[in-house]
């Protein structure tokens, strides 16, 4: 059986994205709890016959690494039926923050992998993080489009990453359509750990985040909490993006929340205009030798708290969480969530705006909106009429933006946060937009079970 002789799945394996059905096969990834131990289940992608359920093919992203696991595909897959290709956005190998037992680049992890839809044969792969030590999974579905350049139309895809980079690839070959540079990476301070020497970075579009944060950049509502943040930053090991975590407290900017996350982006194909929401919150973390008394609570990484994460099979646990002042607000300057419009053809950012109000965030609530942006989970949709609808924020708002300017055109207050992606449909000649509002445990806010539909003007 695909899940073992007993016919049961391991308890730390589930699904967070729907399978894709194309060419008579059903292809599914998996969600694996990959930060609690080194030997997690492997992130095998499975293809089943759509008619009788029999196995057609499997793909293991971590062949050659028996002492590790995962590199699973928890984000949605994409399919190009014309060219019989399926695209896998793979995640990090386990455990997230310690790679001694998985030396090398960990090929096919943290990658976009293109397989033959019918046979599962590898066509190409592009790795955007080598030997991941930061939990920089590939978080979002590859977006397929046709790249227009010098009168030519090239089958392409765009991949958003947690580190705020936008990779545009020829989807038939995996070749980058913008030049890739190699960013030098500082060495790891962990015994036996060999961080990759460089990481790939496209020359365009520009990064969606400024990953440099120095003590003099510390932010606060008052001089007192700003000084608190400055002191915390002064005590962190910080050599920029891709600083390896170690026993020394380390800045992780962006943190494992991103940058972009599973909401991905929306693309107006005919214009090459990509709209994407991003997080902009610094994290800190360190590796804790086993036996040391914890300074944080147990559990998974979460916005607003420091947690200790056990990494069984390694000599360490990990402590990490968002970097905040004693007031509970991020230490990096706002906006803490942004909506960004990217011209993929020109390789430039057209506009960006804060996404979210902090009037319900932090120690004191306000009766008016304060548009400094909030951490966000969820995605948005673009309409042919030039609107972009998104919720996702920590302020219970559902918003509509002008795709050309980023201006907020409409908002509605929901009962709880809507950490989801809206959808649209037409009924009796009128267009509707619908959103699920359920909240999210990561943000420690209210939860619910609401479904709201809104009619667009005729």
TrEMBL record:
The protein in question is named Pyrroloquinoline quinone-dependent dehydrogenase
| Gene3D superfamilies, per the entry | Quinoprotein alcohol dehydrogenase-like superfamily
- Domain of life per record: Bacteria
Q: Residues in domain Pyrrolo-quinoline quinone repeat?
A: 8-433
Cofactor(s) of this protein: pyrroloquinoline quinone
Q: Which InterPro entries match?
A: PQQ_b-propeller_rpt (IPR018391), PQQ_rpt_dom (IPR002372), Quinoprotein_ADH-like_sf (IPR011047)
Q: Which family does it belong to?
A: Belongs to the bacterial PQQ dehydrogenase family.
Q: Give the organism's phylogenetic lineage.
A: Bacteria, Pseudomonadati, Pseudomonadota, Gammaproteobacteria, Cellvibrionales
In alphabetical order, the GO MF annotations are:
quinoprotein glucose dehydrogenase activity
Which organism was this protein described from? Haliea salexigens
Q: Which UniProt keywords are listed?
A: Oxidoreductase
């Amino acid at each position: 059986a695909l899940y073992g002789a007993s016919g049961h799945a391991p308890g730390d394996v589930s699904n967070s994205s729907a399978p894709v059905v194309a060419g008579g096969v059903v292809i599914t990834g998996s969600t694996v709890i990959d930060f609690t131990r080194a030997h997690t289940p492997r992130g095998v992608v499975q293809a089943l016959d759509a008619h009788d359920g029999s196995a057609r093919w499997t793909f293991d992203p971590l062949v050659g690494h028996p002492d590790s696991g995962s590199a699973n595909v928890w984000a949605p897959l994409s399919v190009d039926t014309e060219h019989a290709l399926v695209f896998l956005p793979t995640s990090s190998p386990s455990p997230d923050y310690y790679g001694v037992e998985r030396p090398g680049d960990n090929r096919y992890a943290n990658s976009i992998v293109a397989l033959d839809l019918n046979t599962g044969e590898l066509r190409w792969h592009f790795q955007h993080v080598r030997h991941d030590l930061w939990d920089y999974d590939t978080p979002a579905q590859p977006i397929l489009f046709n790249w227009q350049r010098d009168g030519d139309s090239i089958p392409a895809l765009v991949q958003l990453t947690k580190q705020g980079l936008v990779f545009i690839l020829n989807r038939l070959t995996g070749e980058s359509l913008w030049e890739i540079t190699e960013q030098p990476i500082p060495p790891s301070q962990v015994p036996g750990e060999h961080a990759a020497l460089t990481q790939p970075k496209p020359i365009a579009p520009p990064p969606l985040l400024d990953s440099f944060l120095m003590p003099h950049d510390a932010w606060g509502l008052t001089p007192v909490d700003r000084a608190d943040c400055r002191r915390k930053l002064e005590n962190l090991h910080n050599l920029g993006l891709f600083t390896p975590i170690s026993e020394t407290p380390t800045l992780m900017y962006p943190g494992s929340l991103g940058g972009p996350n599973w909401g991905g982006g929306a693309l107006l194909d005919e214009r090459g205009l990509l709209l994407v929401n991003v997080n902009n919150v610094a994290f800190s973390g360190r590796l804790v030798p086993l036996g040391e008394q914890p300074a944080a609570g147990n559990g998974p990484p979460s916005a607003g708290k420091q947690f200790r994460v056990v990494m069984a099979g390694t000599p360490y646990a990990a402590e990490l969480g968002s970097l905040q002042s004693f007031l509970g607000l991020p230490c990096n300057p706002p906006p803490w969530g942004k909506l960004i419009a990217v011209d993929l053809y020109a390789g430039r950012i057209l506009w960006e705006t804060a996404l979210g109000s902090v009037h319900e965030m932090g120690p004191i609530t306000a009766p008016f909106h304060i548009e400094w942006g909030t951490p966000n989970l969820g995605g948005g949709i673009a309409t042919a009429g030039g609107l972009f609808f998104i919720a996702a924020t920590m302020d219970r708002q559902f918003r509509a933006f002008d795709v050309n300017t980023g201006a907020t055109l409409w908002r509605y207050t929901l009962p709880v946060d809507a950490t989801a992606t809206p959808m649209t449909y037409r009924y009796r000649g009128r267009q509707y937009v619908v959103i699920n509002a359920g909240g999210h445990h990561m943000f420690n806010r209210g939860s619910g079970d609401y479904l709201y539909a809104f009619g667009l003007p005729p």
